[in-house]
Specification:
The structure holds 2 protein chains of 2 kinds. Chain A is mainly alpha-helical. Chain A has a domain of about 100 residues: Orthogonal Bundle (Rna Polymerase Sigma Factor, Chain: A). In chain A, about 60% of the residues lie in helices and about 0% in strands. Chain A has 9 helices and no strands. Chain A is globular. Chain B has 3 domains: about 60 residues; about 50 residues, no CATH class; about 110 residues, Immunoglobulin-like. The longest helix of chain B has about 45 residues. Chain B contains 5 helices and 9 strands; from the N terminus they run H-H-H-H-E-E-E-E-E-E-E-H-E-E. In chain B, strand 1 and strand 2 form a beta hairpin. By secondary structure, chain B is an alpha+beta fold. The chains are: A mainly alpha, B alpha+beta. At the A-B interface, helix 2, helix 3, helix 4, helix 5 and helix 6 of A face helix 3, helix 4 and strand 7 of B.
Chain lengths: ~220, ~240
């Protein structure tokens, strides 16, 4: 994982709401909270412990979405290991979105990894014992996107940040520029470079493991 | 089909891509439509963008579904255990750092020295034709020794991954005789194979040395479960 090199944060109160900034101020506050906890500030640690209480709910939800393959004890174990992993990897939170969005993505990948380790994920959903579902199937979609998430993880953090801002947070290049202190044109150029890099990584892994891995 | 003109077509492609959702329409209406190279580039790029779009939609939909579900989940014992661990670390942090800092630094230096000697010492694969190196149940399968063609292909190895663990591959290149510099490294791998980025690989020298690192489920390096293999491309 690449550790972001962050610019010193502006005090929240100095941010101009007209520049985009209620969202940005909230994310910056989250980032300050996380960095404070990493530096051992007791108040920040305490607040972060509170904020991460949502992790259990996220894991329970995701386990259900992935068709409830983990039992109660297994879930308890997953909650503990995920919370510890979150504390170990706080460096990865770069304030792209609000803290809970990062936690949600983190929980998804931890749940998928655990199901895979326990061989509870079907190689293809056709192999599953579950009946086909006519509506949107989050389990199938999660498997489809898992590989992309992991390839995204291999990109440098600044590149990954722009791609996520564009596609997950649905920001325009102008908004991305404001968020990252860049011009809209620079944001656009970096975005297309990021897409090219991602395309290269995806192409290089086409002969890699099939979706569903060792399950 | 028109011949690909890298400079002119490249600029035009950037303009087409800048049209966002209408890029494909803009492409068909442009001079690029008859260029196979540009068409293939556009399709691959748009496919990547489409996949990112789908990922974004998925993530937003799942977050919304989670918020709407309003799950009433009672905290369990895991949160308390984690809280105790985090607070214990915080309480013991400053003195522990001072007390153990020199021990940690010395241990890290010794480990780095041992790893460097292990990786860079003249090896049995020095002629590029050595067989896979065995040890601790790990075997580096490919590339090894002389490799036909202009690519090292997909790296492969065997050996049992610790529960929850992961692999990392590091590739060193012989930049001058007997000197190996780090060229590339993989992300976290759970499968015993890795395909390097072809653009990066094209820059590697003909002779490489690669190393497998194994980490356990707590992300701790298994230290000496570190192995190396030499390979040489016949046509670079």
């Amino acid at each position: 994982m690449t550790v972001d090199r962050l610019k010193p944060l502006k005090p929240t109160s100095s941010l101009q709401p007209s520049k985009g900034g209620r969202e940005r101020a909230r994310h910056d506050a989250d980032l300050e909270l996380v960095r404070g906890a990493q530096n051992g500030d007791p108040a920040a640690v305490s607040e972060l412990l509170e904020r991460t209480k949502c992790v259990r709910g996220m894991l329970v939800f995701q386990n259900r979405r992935l068709r409830g393959r983990l039992g109660e004890e297994e879930l308890e174990d997953l909650v503990q290991s995920t919370l510890l992993a979150i504390w170990r990897k706080l460096d990865d939170y770069a304030g792209i979105g609000k803290l809970e969005s990062w936690l949600f993505r983190f929980c998804y990948l931890e749940t998928l990894a655990r199901l895979r380790e326990m061989r509870r994920l079907p190689r293809q959903l056709d192999d599953s014992v579950d009946p086909p579902q006519p509506e949107r199937d989050p389990a199938s979609e999660a498997l489809d996107h898992e590989h992309l998430y992991r390839v995204l993880d291999r990109l440098d953090a600044p590149v990954r940040r722009i791609l996520l801002l564009k596609h997950v947070e649905e920001l325009t290049f102008d908004q991305i520029g404001k968020r990252l202190d860049l011009s809209a044109n620079t944001a656009k150029t970096r975005y297309y470079r990021g897409i090219a890099k991602l395309r290269g990584l995806l192409a290089s892994q086409m002969d890699g493991p099939a979706r569903g891995g060792d399950a | 089909m028109s011949r690909h003109d890298a400079e002119r077509h490249g600029e035009r492609l950037q303009e087409v891509l800048a049209r966002g959702d209408e890029a494909r329409i803009a492409f068909e209406g442009s001079e690029l439509a008859s260029c196979d190279t540009c068409r293939s580039f556009l399709e691959a790029t748009m496919d990547t963008i489409d996949r990112m779009d789908a990922l974004g939609r998925f993530e937003r939909a799942e977050r919304d579904a989670f918020e709407q579900a309003k799950l009433d989940v009672a905290p369990g014992s895991a949160e308390e255990r984690v809280r105790e661990q985090v607070l214990a670390q915080l309480r013991g942090r400053a003195p522990a750092r001072r007390r153990w800092a020199w021990v940690g630094a010395a241990a890290a230096a010794v480990l780095a020295l041992v790893a460097a000697l292990y990786v860079f010492a003249p090896g049995d694969g020095g002629d590029g034709g050595g067989g896979p190196m065995l040890g601790d149940g790990f075997e580096l399968l490919h590339p090894a020794g002389a490799v036909e063609g202009d690519s090292f292909g997909t790296f492969r190895w065997s050996g049992a991954l610790p529960p929850g663990g992961w692999y990392k591959i590091k590739v060193f290149g012989e930049t001058e005789p007997g000197r190996f510099d780090l060229l590339d490294e993989s992300g976290r791998l759970r499968e015993p194979r890795w395909a390097p980025d072809p653009t990066e690989e094209a820059r590697w020298p003909a002779r490489i040395r690669w190393m497998l690192e194994v980490y356990d489920g707590s992300n701790a390096s298994r230290g000496f479960e570190t192995h190396r293999q030499d390979a040489e491309l016949s046509s670079r």
